[in-house]
Automatic annotation (TrEMBL), chain A:
Native source species: Motilimonas cestriensis
Superkingdom field: Bacteria
SUPFAM superfamilies: MoaD/ThiS
Classification via NCBIfam families: thiS
Pfam families: ThiS (PF02597)
Gene name tied to this protein: thiS
Protein name stated in the entry: Sulfur carrier protein ThiS
From TrEMBL, chain B:
Residue ranges annotated for the Thiazole synthase ThiG domain, each copy included: 3-247
Record gene name: thiG
UniProt-recorded name of the protein: Thiazole synthase
Gene3D superfamilies: Aldolase class I (3.20.20.70)
Enzyme active site: 95
Enzyme Commission code: 2.8.1.10
Function: Catalyzes the rearrangement of 1-deoxy-D-xylulose 5-phosphate (DXP) to produce the thiazole phosphate moiety of thiamine. Sulfur is provided by the thiocarboxylate moiety of the carrier protein ThiS. In vitro, sulfur can be provided by H(2)S.
Amino acid sequence: MNKITININGQAQQLAPQTSVTDLLTTLGHAEQGMALAVNQSIISRSEWPDHYLQQGDEVSLFQAIAGG
Amino acid sequence: MLTIADKTFSSRLFTGTGKFSHQQSMVDALAASGSQLVTMALKRVDMQNRDDDILAPLIANGMNLLPNTSGARTAKEAVFAAQLAREALQTNWVKLEIHPDPKYLLPDPIETLKAAEALAREGFVVLPYVHADPVLCKRLEEVGCAAVMPLGAPIGSNKGIRTQDFLEIIIEQANVPVIVDAGIGSPSHAALAMELGADAVLVNTAIAVAGNPVAMSRAFALAVQSGRMAYEAGLAGQVQQAVASSPLTAFLEEA
């Protein structure tokens, strides 16, 4: 099966076609809690993650809650 | 009890989660503080180096989360950061902070007002970090901010309540809670802010980098309670000359 290539925070990543945002986070080993994500500068809300499939060439920005004042 | 938007707090000490030497120290100190609202930041995930998951223990301890927009230099960036934070932490509360200059980290009033208006319109509970500017605080209240967070001194400076005269005006005029944020370096600073009538204080650095963060948290909690109690009790006024506390009778003079 052909892989697709996306860019996550400046790093190329190969994925199987029909990879959802939820699948991506699982692949990367991130819990969903505390994460936010934008695809091509549009924020994808968490309720849409299971059904939002990544496309060839997508620019994914992944954010995480961290300690701060 | 302090009410901000839809939430009620029995503790008037809010705390930050930054700068602790390790996660357990943060968890223990925040528990000791009695704080019910803690700030968090957002960052772009580093794909090489994993950050600690600090969220799970905070949620386990029942903390309300207040994500900030630190790193934003414009209203547009702050709105985007707030929208991301809402997704990450599943809360519409946001500490709006826009400080373009890293040396003093002073908040940009114009960008802050623009972002506050946009975020309030989107349904966010907006708590803006601002200079102790009474006019700006009124403007922020008018555009729908749930509270205002004027500074005592620059972030992390520990210099205390350097803006006292202006905080007093802000507190006098505000119809929303006033949370003194930034610069509070010791429990006495926190107590002073509360004596002035602040509704709450936000402390981070002074607890996080203390020799014993847990003990310092307790000291801050007591100071905040004490300062609030004094404010509610009604402080005696100040005068220039002495006013005797004992009766000045001439009983030692020879008859």
